[in-house]
């Protein structure tokens, strides 16, 4: 219920539209019922051939054996002071006055015209009603979708490690759609259909309260059984929902790693895994649909049973002269008409339950607290240094899982600091902590003397330009890709200038539409080195005081590497830079080389100081450059320098 109220709160700004929807629902229901009730005078007029003069329902009734008095008494006995029969008579009179004409034929014509008008109005209001519901429902879904996306995108990086991409996509897409459907179902089945049922029941009671009572008992039995099945369906539905998340993740994983799959001829293996998955998915869908399928036939069986009992009981009343045969026909028709909304109401329970389940999951996302608290301090420029003071960090927050242990380091403005060390020694993690993708467990990181936790995250990250090995490019023009993330409208000149610094200008000029060339989905139409240089150009346009290069050249061939390395050297001029590199050749000229091993800083010094120290750096250096038969040009380059 709590969640239902919360979903309703999303609708609350649309109060005027909701009120209008209710009014139109009322009119729709009213006209639907009037159109059913109109059949009574129509049948009376058509079936009564005895007189030339107007044959009204009342006169038809009067022509039948006297039945009202004993019935009126019995109704009064049961419903106290309410004299239903006299209301019924008044209603009939009102109708008859409206349609009565001098001849039977004219009366019939009036009835038919009235019928067309009433049905037209009913359908007009039905259309209006549906349109109003769609407006509110799509607005609610849009609001929810925007909010979920906004929340997710602002969550810290750790959140994305904990949640599969497919599951997150499922929240934004599928779960919101389920709530969207539940909203319309709520409007129709909590407002329009109940009103419709109410009005039809009034008609039924007017015709025969006894028959109505029978039908009501059957309806209640039907509702109870549907409710029971609804619960089962709900649990299957949420199971399918979570599997849908897995499906998205699975597809994402496979298509992103398509190169790896093909290189290892793993297509068939992936097909088998996918087939296992779809088999399981089908099994659950089948079970859920088996249950869903029972709902319809069960409803109809109960509905038909209600009508059959009503007809049997009504027939006996007609035999005993308590009601006319025309009334019985209209009663059966009205009862049949009430079945559809009752059925919809009973099925709505399942739909609304599914919607509430999705709403619950969506609100869990919306309410998720980010463990990275934003600071208030703005940082306009980098003036002094970055200091890491005895920092400890672990991804899993369990004992002995620390990735960084008691790391202290100072990076002064204008310095180029290189991080080296074996794979998994914690270099990238250290950089991620400086960017505050995660918070340190112990110790602190200071930028210009203030803890980075005190800074506003956006303003802190504006100080950095990051170039990583995996370059993320979008399906946009080259210029658009370079300008991404600058937060300003970069001029064409600025973009060209950035491209020049990044050694990218030459290949861009050769492209079909130069800077306007679309680079295709994820930049696949570019070589690795070109992508790297675009990424450097992007960092240059942002013009940050501190640059971070994470393995920026490790995936390139020697020619590309040289171009990218030159671009990096250009970019680093007059800037503070943190460089992570596996190839030691690329960081030889760094002011400070920090050697990391198993999460600790083990050596710090210049290239030659570290070689002299004869420690881990020397070992790494020997491994990379002095292997017999190593023809690495990097080696020659280093030695020639
Ligand atoms: N998101 C993560 N969740 C859990 N553990 C992680 C995560 N990222 C990295 N690690 C672990 O932290 C340790 C340090 O990883 P990190 O990427 O910082 O090392 P690295 O020195 O940059 O390695 P490489 O040179 O191979 O990139 C490794 O043991 C790695 O498995």
UniProtKB/TrEMBL annotation:
- Localization: Cell membrane
* Keywords recorded for this protein, A-Z: ATP-binding, Membrane, Nucleotide-binding, Transmembrane, Transmembrane helix
Q: Which PROSITE patterns match?
A: ABC_TM1F, ABC_TRANSPORTER_1, ABC_TRANSPORTER_2
Protein name from the UniProt record: ABC transporter-related protein
Which SUPFAM superfamilies does the annotation name? Answer: ABC transporter transmembrane region, P-loop containing nucleoside triphosphate hydrolases
A GO cellular component annotation here is: plasma membrane
- Residue ranges occupied by any ABC transmembrane type-1 domain in the UniProt entry: 19-354
Name the membrane topology term: Multi-pass membrane protein
SMART domains this protein is in?
A: AAA
Signal sequence, start to end: none
Taking every annotated instance into account, which residue ranges of this chain make up the domain ABC transporter?
Answer: 386-623
- Key word GTP-binding present in the record? no
Domain of life where this protein originates: Bacteria
The record ties this protein, via InterPro entries, to:
AAA+_ATPase (IPR003593), ABC1_TM_dom (IPR011527), ABC1_TM_sf (IPR036640), ABC_transporter-like_ATP-bd (IPR003439), ABC_transporter-like_CS (IPR017871), P-loop_NTPase (IPR027417), Type_1_exporter (IPR039421)
**Membrane-spanning residues:** 18-40, 108-128, 195-224
GO MF annotations, alphabetized: ABC-type oligopeptide transporter activity; ATP binding; ATP hydrolysis activity
């Amino acid at each position: 219920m709590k969640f239902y109220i919360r979903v309703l709160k999303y609708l609350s700004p649309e109060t005027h539209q909701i009120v209008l929807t209710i009014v139109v629902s009322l009119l729709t229901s009213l006209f639907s019922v009037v159109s059913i009730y109109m059949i009574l005078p129509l049948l009376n007029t058509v079936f009564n051939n005895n007189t030339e003069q107007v044959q009204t329902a009342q006169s038809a009734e009067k022509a039948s054996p006297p039945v009202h008095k004993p019935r009126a008494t019995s109704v009064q006995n049961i419903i106290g002071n309410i004299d239903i029969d006299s209301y019924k008579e008044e209603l009939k009179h009102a109708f008859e006055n409206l349609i009565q004409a001098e001849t039977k034929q004219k009366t019939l014509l009036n009835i038919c015209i009235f019928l067309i008008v009433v049905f037209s109005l009913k359908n007009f209001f039905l259309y209006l009603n549906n349109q109003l519901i769609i407006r509110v429902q799509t607005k609610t879904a849009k609001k929810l979708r925007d909010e979920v996306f906004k929340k997710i995108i602002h969550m810290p990086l750790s959140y994305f490690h904990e949640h599969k991409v497919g599951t997150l996509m499922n929240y934004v897409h599928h779960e919101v759609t389920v709530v969207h459907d539940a909203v319309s179902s709520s409007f129709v089945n909590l407002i329009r259909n109940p009103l419709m049922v109410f009005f039809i029941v009034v008609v039924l009671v007017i015709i025969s309260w006894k028959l109505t009572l029978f039908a009501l008992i059957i309806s209640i039995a039907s509702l109870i059984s549907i409710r029971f099945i609804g619960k089962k369906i709900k649990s299957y539905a949420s199971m399918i929902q979570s599997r849908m998340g897995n499906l998205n993740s699975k597809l994402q994983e496979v298509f992103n790693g398509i190169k790896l799959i093909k290189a290892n001829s793993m297509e068939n293996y992936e097909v088998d895994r996918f087939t296992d998955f779809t088999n399981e998915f089908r099994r659950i869908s089948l079970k859920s649909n088996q249950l869903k399928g029972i709902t319809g036939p069960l409803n109809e069986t109960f509905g038909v049973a209600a009508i059959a009992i009503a007809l049997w009981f009504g027939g006996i009343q007609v035999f005993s002269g308590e009601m006319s045969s025309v009334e019985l026909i209209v009663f059966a028709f009205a009862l049949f008409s009430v079945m559809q909304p009752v059925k919809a109401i009973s099925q709505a329970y399942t739909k609304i339950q599914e919607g509430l389940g999705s709403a619950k999951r969506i609100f869990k996302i919306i309410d998720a607290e980010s463990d990275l608290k934003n600071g208030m301090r703005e940082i306009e420029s980098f003036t002094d240094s970055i200091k890491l003071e005895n920092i400890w960090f672990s991804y899993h927050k369990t004992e002995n899982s620390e990735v960084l242990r008691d790391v202290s380091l100072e990076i002064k403005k204008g310095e180029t600091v290189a991080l080296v060390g074996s794979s998994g020694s914690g270099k990238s993690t250290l950089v991620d902590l400086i960017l505050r993708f995660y918070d340190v467990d112990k110790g602190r990181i200071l930028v210009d003397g203030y803890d980075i936790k005190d800074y506003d995250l956006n303003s802190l990250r504006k100080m950095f330009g990051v170039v990583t090995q995996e370059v993320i490019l979008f399906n946009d023009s080259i210029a658009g890709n370079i300008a991404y993330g600058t937060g300003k409208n970069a001029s064409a000149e600025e973009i060209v200038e950035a491209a020049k610094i990044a050694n990218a200008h030459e290949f861009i000029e050769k492209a079909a539409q130069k800077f306007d060339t679309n680079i295709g989905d994820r930049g696949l139409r570019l070589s690795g080195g070109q992508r790297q240089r675009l990424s450097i150009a992007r960092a240059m346009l942002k013009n940050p005081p501190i640059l971070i290069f994470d393995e920026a050249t490790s995936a390139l061939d020697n020619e590309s590497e040289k171009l990218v390395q030159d671009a990096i050297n250009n970019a680093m001029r007059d800037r503070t830079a943190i460089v992570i590199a596996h190839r030691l050749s690329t960081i030889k000229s760094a002011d400070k080389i920090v050697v990391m091993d198993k999460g600790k800083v083990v050596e710090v010094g210049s290239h030659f100081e570290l070689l002299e120290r004869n420690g881990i750096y020397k070992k790494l250096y020997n491994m990379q450059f002095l292997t017999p038969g190593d023809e690495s040009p990097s080696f020659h380059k280093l030695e020639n320098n």
